What we know:
By secondary structure, chain A is mostly beta strands.
Amino acid sequence: MDQKQRVIIGLIVVIAIAGAALGIQVFAANQVAPQAPLEENVPLNISVNATSFIYGPQDWKPGLPPLPLVPATIPGAGNFSVLFVDLNATPKGVAGTLPVIRPVAVDYRFSGLSGMAAFHVYGYSPGAHGERILGWTNRVDGDGSTGYYVTGTGTPGGTGLSAKTLAMPNGSVIVYNNPAALYASGFKKEGGGLNAIHITTDPGTPEGQVTVTGEQAGRFYVTATGNQPLDSVILLVAVNQTQDDRFALSLAAHPVTGESGA
Amino acid sequence: MKTPYFSLEEVALISLCGALVFLLRVMVKVPLHIPGHSGIFWVIPVMAGSGIIRKPGAGTCIGIISGILVAFFGMDTLPLFDILKYCALGMSIDLLMVVFAYPTGGVAAGFVIGAAGNVVKMIVDYLVLTFFGMPAVFIALGIGVSAISHIIFGGIGGIIAVQILSRLRHGGLIHSEPY
């Protein structure tokens, strides 16, 4: 076989690979039905246990580059196990040019928490095929950082949690209360997506703050301060110790009106 | 005493080419936001090194060295598996350079070799992501466009690489049968 014949065969193979890949893409696009969001009128009210944390151990959360799970002001937290929950509610930022802060209230209640729990949020928008693209999250360190951290005094669990590593930076995540849907990290610009969504304990301070508390039950708010077209938000919950069978976390979330803004 | 497969000069060249792939990975940032666009740069040292040494295994060694460097410096999200990706790139280019008898000219051969190397790297990358839990359907939703861009940019890198080899041959720095 001379060189010319090898080149022709090589080009045919390359074109065939491209054609096959396009065919797979078209087939997959036809198979993925448009994914309707969770019905927003149904407030979130769920409970998770120690086996719900399917990611980790890791000390970072999705972002570009990956962001720490705790700020530098909380040293020695170590690695965390992580899970994601769709809050099924959208915080509002602006309407036209008017600021309209309509936060989402998140009520939590721990029992048997050992170590520290961290709460972070992600805003997502719909992708071309109905997948949910995570493009915003709360800043963890530096000016404008927010987050909610709860310390517990429970007994650590005896066995390690089964977990799988989160694929980064554009990997997908499995959300606890919507496991069939596609949620994917969609941070395109390095350092971007950190200024639009926050966690606060005071709806009158939508830019939020970093809160560390020992209260095993309480409320914080998720706020949006821009006019980005958020579809909804998911909550990242992380614990830095193996939890035992007595561990439980109840979460409830609903949009709040009349507490702040116009 | 048994003669080593690679001479000292060839080992040095393999190491330099592997390091060059790593440097290009670190220092050359082209904000094109098209999957596979950086394949232009990575394919060139592997093909050039393989074409200069003209021994099976040279490309594979270049891929392994660049993968180790990228993994060691934690450049990507799954560092240890970078070795697999770059090794796959090196092995595929190695194999095709043998098949095409180490071309030192000819645009088409260079295009095919570079494109194939970049596509193989893409496939290994996706396999690793699937292994770590990314739903395959999510990869499938973008694989067509990604494959085409990997082929184009890898092919361009391959064309550049054979032009480099052609210049080296004309300059008498490497000796080969012209294509």
